[in-house]
């Protein structure tokens, strides 16, 4: 049982409504909102509307599932997927006993704006913050969003029972692990949260709560079979790249058992046709990956799989052959650079030759490949960037994405920049590389322009266009043409 206590009393300022005699958790109504990561909801013009995300909010669906297992009424709003998001948020907030808002490093201001709208509509409803930003700035997020009462700095699924008991007045907030909370003008910390190693103990995400949304589109174009969902089979990553903050959110690399993962796939295939595997490093344990793919093959899975987190040093022919048979259509690599010195600077622990071998192997198997590159490392020269662009064009990649190096609070690069005085400790937690801060030899505008020109140079090559035409006509696969429409 996830919850065992009954709601008996409500401290003023937290829960707006006291349960009646004999009522328990099933009388509570919680609203979980995924805020936008792109263009703000508050833009007036329709062309500036936030674009729907590619995949559902798995973290909120896990939390919702835990709540529903104890009878709590839960609503999940994916704000960018709503036709009239602000109206939907106002309507559902007015009927809720508490609201949970997701916060990311790139959207605390957007979340603060939504908090004001909710507070105007429901003056007494408790506002709870969760998400990656809460792990990075557990107390600071409450200072940035002063209308919220609580921030969940740990994994929300494992602390909902004591948190709900505290909201109901039967347990002090100071006794709840993994949270920070507002006590009048002070911000205080709950108990330390110990990471739970048993991810199999969690119920599967409550996907039915977002069935009304259409996922799988990139810039408005469907890149997968309709009816896409996502799955997370592990948390954390055994590696520690200097630009990454994964270790902040999950200090250890934890994996679900192959049997537990296969059971979820069995449940998924009754409702969906495409599944995005959102692990940071799904193939980190090749033996486990083999077992999962073997199980999918044995079960006759018809799902189309997209692996969004893979390293090139895990590429093995027998594993990739099995991936193809199991339904893997797409794999995304963090390639970062075509210069070995830059890869070493990022602590990627991969070589250019490993990159060439992995991408070639995936292409040989007919798996669509996506390569992610980063521009703007502190030591990078114009020749280094040209070399990275040439390297990308030399690979049989189907999709490329160039992004500007981001200094994110919690990463090694951020800490080093703070020590040098290039970034202040109280600045935004997400800062793009820029020569004006001595974070790169190039300005942020220059890096954006370089990325845009590199993208066009990659896709407008005659050999790429010929390959896209061949796959579309001979293999009856329009994915690459769809990608061109979405990107260019």
The gist of it:
The chain is of the alpha/beta class and 488 residues long. The chain is built from 17 helices and 19 strands. The protein has 2 domains: 25-189, 3-Layer(aba) Sandwich (Rossmann fold); 214-487, Alpha-Beta Horseshoe (pyruvate-formate lyase- activating enzyme), CATH 3.80.30.
State the CATH class of the largest domain.
Alpha Beta
Fraction in beta strands? 15-25%
Contiguous uncertain segments of 5+ residues: 1-23
CATH architecture of the largest domain: Alpha-Beta Horseshoe
Tell me, briefly, the overall form: globular
Care to count the β-strands? 19
Helix content: 25-40%
> What is the CA–CA distance across the termini?
51 Å
Broad structural category? alpha/beta
Cα-based radius of gyration, to the nearest Å: 23 Å
State the CATH superfamily name of the largest domain.
Answer: tm_1862 like domain
* Quaternary organization: single chain
Looking at the structure, the CATH topology of the largest domain is pyruvate-formate lyase- activating enzyme
Number of domains: 2
Strand order of the largest sheet: 2-1-3-4-5-6-7
Output mean pLDDT.
Answer: 88
The helix count comes to: 17
Query: How is the main sheet built?
Result: 7 strands, mixed
Question: What does it look like?
Answer:
The protein is of the alpha/beta class and 488 residues long. 35% of the residues lie in helices and 17% in strands. It has helices at 58-68, 85-94, 108-121, 132-136, 140-144, 160-167, 246-249, 258-268, 286-298, 317-326, 340-345, 352-364, 382-394, 412-420, 444-459, 462-473, 479-487; strands spanning 29-34, 73-78, 98-102, 127-130, 150-152, 179-183, 186-189, 217-218, 221-222, 228-231, 234-235, 254-255, 274-277, 304-310, 328-336, 368-375, 399-404, 406-408, 430-432. The protein has a 7-stranded mixed beta sheet, with helices on both faces. It has a 6-stranded parallel beta sheet with strand order 10-13-14-15-16-17. Strands 8-9 form a two-stranded antiparallel sheet. The chain starts with 28 loop residues before the first strand and ends with a helix.
